[in-house]
Amino acid sequence: MGELPHEFPARRGFSISYMGKTLLSRIDPIAQGEKLVSMLPLEEGTLYFCPSPLYGYGLSILFNSLKENSVILCVETDEKLYEISKKAFLTITESKTLQLIKAIEPAELCAFVNKTWGKRVFRRVETVRLGRGWQLYTQHYEDMEKALRREIAVEWSNAMTLIRLGRLYSRNLIRNLIMLPKSRDASALNFSSAPVLVLGAGPSLDSTLDELGAHYGGKIPEQKKRRFKIICVDSCFSALIERGIHPDLVVILESQHYNLKAFIGFKNFKVDAVFDLSALPISTRIFSGDRYIFATPWTELRLIERLIDSGLLPETFPPLGSVGLSSVAIALHLGQGPVICGGLDFSYSIDAYYARCTPGHREFLMRQNRLKGIINAEAAFRTGSFSALSKNGKQVRSDPALRNYWELFGQQFGGNTRLLDINSSGLSIGVKTVSAAEAFAILNDDTIYGTTGSTTGAVTGGAKIKEFILKEIDTIDRLRDILSGAVHCEAARLEEFLDNADYLWAHFPECAGAGGRRPPITDLSFLKRVRTEIEPFRKLWEMSLNSFND
Questions:
Q1: What is the per-residue pLDDT across 6-64, written as a single tens digit (0 to 9) for each?
Q2: Is-contact 260 242, C-beta < 8 A?
Q3: Alpha-carbon torsion, ordered 125, 128, 134, 135, to 10 deg
Q4: What are the pLDDT digits (tens) for 468-522?
Q5: 8 Å CB contact between 27 and 137
Q6: What is the C-alpha to C-alpha distance for residues 320 and 203, in angstroms, rounded to an integer?
């Protein structure tokens, strides 16, 4: 059975001896816990994370002092210590404000928090260590704490993105519906067991492209001379073409106009592209090759649910916020072979922020003059930037935005045995690193190839989309009539129409910050703002409908 925890009385309260450690004070563990709790900051929206709470001494004081939207989450990894804590917590664990659970994996813990208290409820995490029990499983508790902090940071970052871009995402989705009959679902792509090279636009891409161009570049489309597949992000497409390298698939994700510079000079260029349903519409219409479409639902919307119910929503991928991360997710989904990453650096140097021949690099060169040289100190040392150690041991620079993407990459793909990363000046991304020579040996290994290709068939027909659009127009027309006073309806009916047309208000700050929960219908300011959103969106629906009638 192994060693059992030894509980023994202290001068006040009880202490525990276990696994060679005394976990609580032998003198006055109650006073010790109360002192630790009294030093904690009391703020609204705080998740108090208590690893190995043992008897929970002091938590009653914290429990009675909690501010609004604050809770206590106690986690115990050890089964035997959990049984002790469960008995001590018996009278208070029924409260939703204080929970005691057995340790689970960090991702499951974050899911538990979201399910129990909802998204975007907490703004910070405070760790409460009441004894030495947490030292028995230090790494596990640290991983859980980091996961909670990261989840809260990501949730609020997503809220800010939704406020800033949510309306644009919905507008782009509506405008891109007309592309469904002209495109194939991303699920139709099939690379089978063929190795895939995924390329980002980081500075280390240069060395990879030099090696790639030496063997597969030239005026003749090199796909005839190689069998492995190349997927590139839109911002590094021009760098490949400059070296005579023709990718098999370009990934287009950007919803704004920033990435249009990546397509200058490539109108009607014959290359296959896969694009997000919420991508900038004009960027999805540039290339003349086969089009494939996928979706990254940026938030929970009834509109997206209706697309699913109607069979119109294409293959979905998680919203990762980065075209590089989305490219890796797509590559892993398209086949069963190895996926090798290059140019996904999440870092830069003082003289190289992007790979050569990319739009960002060209813009930087054009800005050079007698007063501004090749050293971009402003970007390398701006507020929040920091020094980091790259895969090849060199010092590089990074910043909070790139670090967030780097952490998200590790969370989504870290440890994936199918993923490999070419050794370079980029940050380690949590997968096995190989040299350029080893990478190309894998890409050219004839023993791992199978049949590749894609299935045929468009996503859906135009008639089905027209029917969907007409229903959406009818919904917002009715909502407009109600909000304008032309039609009277019961409160419950208004609630239903508002919920069904949630894309009209999901980007409002008070809704995005509340996890998609809207204000009550008594909030006149909210209703007026919803009313102003109806006409612009109705025109977009009409434009999409008319495109099928032309």
A1: 999 998 999 999 998 999 999 999 999 999 999 999 999 999 999 999 999 999 999 99
A2: no
A3: 100
A4: 999 999 999 999 999 998 888 899 999 999 999 999 999 999 999 887 889 999 9
A5: no
A6: 21
The amino acid occupying position 60 is S
The DSSP secondary-structure symbol of 155 reads H
The C-alpha atoms of residue 431 and residue 423 are separated, in whole angstroms, by: 11
Q: What is the pLDDT of residue 220?
A: 47
The Cα-based distances of 84 to 16, 25, 95, 463 in angstroms read 10, 17, 19, 64
Give the CA angle between residues 517, 297, 201 to the nearest 5°. 130
Buried b (16+ CB within 10 A) or exposed e, 451-468: ebebeeebbbebeebbeb
* Domains of the chain, residue spans: 34-156, 183-454, 461-549
Of 38, 7, 39, which is closest to residue 22 (Cα–Cα)? 7
Distance CA(250)–CA(272), nearest Å, equals 6
pTM as predicted: 0.85
Chain centre distance of CA 383 = 24
Q: Count each helix (H run) and each strand (E run) in the chain, helices first.
A: 17, 20
Look at residue 104 and tell me whether its pLDDT is greater than 50. yes
- CA torsion, ordered 63, 64, 67, 69, to nearest 10 deg: 50
If DSSP states are collapsed to H, E and C, what string results for 382-420?
A: CCCCEEEECCCCCEEEECHHHHHHHHHHHHHHCCCCCEE
Query: Please, are residues 228 and 210 in contact by the beta-carbon 8 Å criterion?
Result: no
pLDDT over 70 percentage in the chain: 94
Q: In terms of CATH architecture, what is 34-156?
A: 3-Layer(aba) Sandwich (3.40)
Bridge partners for 9 per DSSP: 14
Q: Contact 202/344 with Cβ under 8 angstroms?
A: yes
